[in-house]
Amino acid sequence: MKTITRNAVLLFIVSLFSFGNWNTSIAQEKQKTLYDRLGGVYAIATVVDDFIERLLVNDVLNANPKIKEARDRVPKAGLKYRVTELVCQVTGGPQKYSGRSMKDSHVHLNITEKEWDAMAADFKVTLDKFEVPEKEQKELFDIVESTKKDIVQNK
Questions:
Q1: 50 pLDDT tier (thresholds 50, 70, 90)
Q2: Which of 122, 55, 44, 143 minimizes the C-alpha distance to 85?
């Protein structure tokens, strides 16, 4: 009888630890930053690379002479670097964005609502291409949307 009781107690204790570890895993998953859920800097840089390449050939954006002028002045590698840095920071990564504010870097471009929508459509295509889950896409779009007031000048 002592052996049965002792085994039952051991089984109960093991069950508690297993449940506790399972519970901890769920809590840790819920606490992961968007940065971590996106896969970190390399995954983000890959998505940014694809996104910027789309923007560079977007006819709606290319029709704006101010955007063309800025593209001629800013090397695409530098733009990709800054956007990667920014996305990493705003999603909870350790990187720190060192560029100008969204307002300062876009005010002279006279971005319209139509151009904003074209950018957002390209962003969606890129996120879908890399199979970014809907939850993370929503969080990313919420972040992007929070910058709209500083970017779109001709509302």
A1: very high
A2: 44
Q: What DSSP string describes 10-72? A: HHHHHHHHHHHHHHHHHHHHHH--HHHHHTHHHHHHHHHHHHHHHHHT-HHHHT-HHHHHHHH
Q: Please, which contacts does 146-151 make with residues 24 or more away whose CB atoms are closer than 8 Å?
A: 147/102, 148/116, 150/101, 150/102, 150/103, 150/106, 151/102, 151/103, 151/106, 151/111, 151/116
Task: Identify the pLDDT of residue 10.
Answer: 47
Quick check: pTM over 0.85? no
Region of 101 (left: φ > 0; alpha: ψ -120 to 50; beta: rest) is: beta
